[in-house]
Amino acid sequence: MTGDFFMKIAVIGPTYPVRGGISHYTTLLAENLAERNEVFVFSLEKFYKTFFYKGREAGDFSRKAIKCKKARVSMKLGLNPLSWLSAGFKLSKQNFGLVVFEWWHVFLYPIYWTVLLGLGKKARKVFICHNVLPHEHSFLAGFFAKRMLKRADKVIVNSKEEFEYLRTFLPGSKIILGFLPLLDFSSGLKAPKSLKVRRVLFFGFVRKYKGLAYLIEAMPKVLEKVPVELWIVGEFWESKQKYLELISSLGIGKSVKIVDRYVSNEEIPGFFQNSSIVALPYVSATQSSIVQLAYEFNKPVIASKVGGLPDVIVEGKTGYLVKPKDSAALSNALIKFFKSGKEKEFSKNISKFKKKFGWERLVRMVEGV
Fold it and tell me: pTM for the complete prediction?
């Protein structure tokens, strides 16, 4: 023990002022661990902004930004490899009992390899995998991911699919099936008064694997049966023009609203509270924090049956699961949802179901390493 604390823990990952879901996750993980541990964050700010962020600006401009308060930002790892080695030596000298590495891309390999070189074998190491392999992976991605994750004392994954994959990918490794906790956007943030409009919400960065085109193609059939709006809210990380042309060719421009920018924290409640259902028409996925965001506001979800999404959506209770790349299935599910009038029933189910996604359970998993 260190003073009145249970353990001295380091968390390595992006944190404020970096924007986005992984940054929010890092900060909230550190803050919840700091409830009974001494926690220091080693920030990947510069590396994240340089190599991972494809948007217009990587900084978080939210007035209600999620920042470390109980946990302390100890060091920022820059682009110079010497800073990575320095971080490893610092971790070794200050006797950390546990080092938590956040893993989602093989670009992290050189940083973490160098940190581990300086750290040596003093502290126990847990890797939390948002993705074992990146969405656009290759043989080399698998090679480097395997070399890195083998260094962990334990690996925590967030979906059953990733858990089963890792058992084959890293036989003999200690793997824990974790989950994505709620991101706490509903606490302390007020939403404007709900609009009397049926609305389908697609939220988050627009990338190819998220299958937005299939949702757009589903809308004409939905609009024949139900007056509804589709809101696409998030930065486009690929060509926006092809989506505009698709919307125009289908003649649904008046029913589609696009907010092509990063949304600040204080705006999030408004978009979710003023929507009827959240759509994730993903082509592939490991998991998605958008489901947890929807649940924070008791909003049902319609999603493709891919990756870890079936782990967190209860068919006919908290939402619907459909075949990927199937616009007709999306149309039918949306029509069924709006025609059945089950929004209140689903919301009530979600308010109970989401309790299993609390941070306390994840903190115990990490501390147990």
Answer: 0.91
